[in-house]
């Protein structure tokens, strides 16, 4: 049976339309796969067998230029992939590589620390290291360590530290810059040193009292805003806690 001119024209249009869809799918696939810098991925696209892509997954007309119906099958315009510039902003955002997490350069950090220390030293604030506890064997009854802070009139505080082991060389006891003077069974001082190599100085508004032994210890630090710390009250609090430890 002969085919009319009109039927041949319609078949040609359907064939061209089919080629246009393949070009769109291939173009979209090529763009997505070559969005990165890996050329090997682009080479593999030629080895992938043709697949049927649901219409809902095909790129929108705005993302890829449409192929003119008048273009003959096999022409460059029907097979050329879409350019990256024609992709939608959402596709470009999806293909933008995420920046790799950065880590601090140890050498740079060390240099910044050294520079800060040098600057502080030039301004009269040299680096000071905290007083270190002498290396000792693990203490017994470490769980017995207790601390209580009491408020004083005028905004002062009294801190009472106690334990069923020797607190010499521990905690606030380290701050005493001398052996103190005996007061009611304890020893007290107002001479303090807070850092290694720092100069000891008398603190008129601070008082440190202590009483230590191998099996029990009490340290009392009293600080007031103005005037002198109450020595008698501090020693009484110390002795009361000492008796509680038995």
TrEMBL record:
Residues 56-69, 76-97 have a biased composition (Low complexity). It comes from the Bacteria. This is Uncharacterized protein. The keyword Transmembrane helix applies. Residues 56-142 are annotated as: Disordered. Keywords: Membrane, Transmembrane, Transmembrane helix. Residues 133-142 have a biased composition (Polar residues). The keyword Membrane applies. The chain crosses the membrane at residues 15-33.
